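Task: sequence design from structure.
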């Protein structure tokens, strides 16, 4: 959700506007084989032409012709390919010392992928090299300890290093409670703080800042990590040993982690109590009598976030259209969309080669999407349109059977991966709001949808119902092998630029259940590659519909 935030700080590769550097190619004679072409490409890593490659260098089941990826090579083939591009690397008994040779093509992620077996291990590689800058410089030496080397290269690592902790298997309420128990509260000369002991495999960014505060924006995560490191006497955030005491200033803590006696913690507990009291609404296996409004974020002049060759607007629109198609074909739910791409309509697409430059909000008359900033008219027309649709439905239908889903994709720190769900926190939803003509548009839906009023009880119930739905949805995602954000995948507020807020599209929406789903983190290479695949987008849509069905049954 939102634009390209904080990208320079985190060196997120492959932005839409950036031209990829040219690959480096080598043609060498393979031991026991013929002349073999090798290529080192930006974000693609090493590729090897198989035609003249010795059989011993090809992995089991790999093709005998065409280009092979590094992961398709045998143990011997991988070691040979690495030595072709980096002949100066030192392969010692306890570590590999890698010398950066192609600074424009190499990255910490790529080194992790090549030497540890998975790019997601890049943070562990950084911890092993605390003095090296994150942006690689020609001539720098990176140590890959034997404990980080992949099995194929003589180490012990198989895929992603295990950083899991028991809390990750709990539901949202139990998980947050377990995280809270890991904190103790104290004071020092600088004021009150929550103390946390960093555990093995944890990093300050993801396991402290993104877990215990409401920051997810990469720039703000980076800034707060530095503040916390300074408060904790840590000189380098990439060389923190397990057991180190981390001091988190209480003013930065999210509501669930505030000290006892605070209003924020009391409001959090009230919501949790309401969640436990909230009954399921049964719509049957066919979702009969359920009113669903789908909103695909951004569109047209606003492509949203972008990284790794993927941009937010078209890809979440395609998922929304797949969800719409499945619901219309397989259920009796009444389904509508807030936005349409005129040249595409409500069709799904296997290939998405470039951003679609025209999108319109489906008001009467249609309104060309004009962006995602708070001042953009179309931001508000989405909830105005949804409210008008819902107002018409509840005249004869069950108001509890109204669901609003806004689909987005974020650009966070690349260590974060998977889906997140935002709900409208009761404390951040105003009791009433009317969209003035200066911020709206001359559309027919303004008459019924442009003004909202919520009682305190209604706001609390809406958050509770939305949390229950989010819990069911994420549980379904996990069972369907859709990645889900670690730590706190359900949140009720966004913190950005010193302010905490609920996105307008769910803040003013009158649906009984309303969520904003961040389908993936575009800055994470695996998430981005998933979204590029139409098969994954179809699986995502199927899982989302399964989640809806699982929620609306007793």
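Answer:
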């Amino acid at each position: 959700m939102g634009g390209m935030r904080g990208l320079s700080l985190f060196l997120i590769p492959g932005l839409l506007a950036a031209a990829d550097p040219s690959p480096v190619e080598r043609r060498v004679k393979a031991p026991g084989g013929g002349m073999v072409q090798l290529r080192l490409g930006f974000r693609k890593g090493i590729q090897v032409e198989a035609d003249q490659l010795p059989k011993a260098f090809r992995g089991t089941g790999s093709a005998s012709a065409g280009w092979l990826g590094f992961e398709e090579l045998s143990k011997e083939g991988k070691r040979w390919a690495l030595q072709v591009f980096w002949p100066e690397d030192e392969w010692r008994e306890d570590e590999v010392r890698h010398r950066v040779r192609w600074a424009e093509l190499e990255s910490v992620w790529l080194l992790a992928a090549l030497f540890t077996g998975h790019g997601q291990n890049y943070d562990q590689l950084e911890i092993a090299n605390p003095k090296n800058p994150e942006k690689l410089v020609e001539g720098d030496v990176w140590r890959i300890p034997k404990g980080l080397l992949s099995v194929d290269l003589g180490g012990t690592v198989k895929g992603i290093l295990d950083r899991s902790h028991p809390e990750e298997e709990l539901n949202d309420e139990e998980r947050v409670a377990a995280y809270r128990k890991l904190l103790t509260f104290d004071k020092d000369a600088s004021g009150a703080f929550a103390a946390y002991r960093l555990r093995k495999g944890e990093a300050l960014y993801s396991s402290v800042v993104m877990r215990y505060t409401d920051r997810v924006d990469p720039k703000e995560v980076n800034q707060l990590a530095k503040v916390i490191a300074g408060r904790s006497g840590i000189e380098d955030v990439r060389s923190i040993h397990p057991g180190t005491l981390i001091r988190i200033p209480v003013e930065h803590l999210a509501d669930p982690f505030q000290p006892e006696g605070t209003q924020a913690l009391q409001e959090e507990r009230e919501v949790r109590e309401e969640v436990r009291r909230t009954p399921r609404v049964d719509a049957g296996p066919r979702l009969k009598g359920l009113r669903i409004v789908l909103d695909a974020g951004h569109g047209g002049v606003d492509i949203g976030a972008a990284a790794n060759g993927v941009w937010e607007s078209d890809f979440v629109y395609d998922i929304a259209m797949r969800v719409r198609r499945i619901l219309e074909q397989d259920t009796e739910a009444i389904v509508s969309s807030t936005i349409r791409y005129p040249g595409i309509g409500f069709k799904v697409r296997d290939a998405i080669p470039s951003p679609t430059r025209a999108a319109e909000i489906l008001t009467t008359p249609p309104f060309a999407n004009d962006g995602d900033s708070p001042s953009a008219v179309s931001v508000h027309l989405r909830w105005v349109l949804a409210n008008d649709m819902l107002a018409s439905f509840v005249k004869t239908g069950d108001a509890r059977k109204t669901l609003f889903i806004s689909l987005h994709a974020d650009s966070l720190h690349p260590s974060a991966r998977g889906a997140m769900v935002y709900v409208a926190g009761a404390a951040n939803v105003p009791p009433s709001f009317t969209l003035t003509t200066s911020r709206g548009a001359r559309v027919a839906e303004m008459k019924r949808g442009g003004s909202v009023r919520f009682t305190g009880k209604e706001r609390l119930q809406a958050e509770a119902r939305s949390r229950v739905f989010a819990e069911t949805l994420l549980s379904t995602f996990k069972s369907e092998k859709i990645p889900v954000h670690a730590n706190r995948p359900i949140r009720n507020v966004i913190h950005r630029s010193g302010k905490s807020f609920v996105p307008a599209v769910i803040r003013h929406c009158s649906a009984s259940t309303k969520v904003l789903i961040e389908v993936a983190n575009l800055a994470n290479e695996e998430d981005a590659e998933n979204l590029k695949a139409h098969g994954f987008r179809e699986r995502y849509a199927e899982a989302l519909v399964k989640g809806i069905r699982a929620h609306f049954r007793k």
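The two ends are 32 Å apart (CA to CA).
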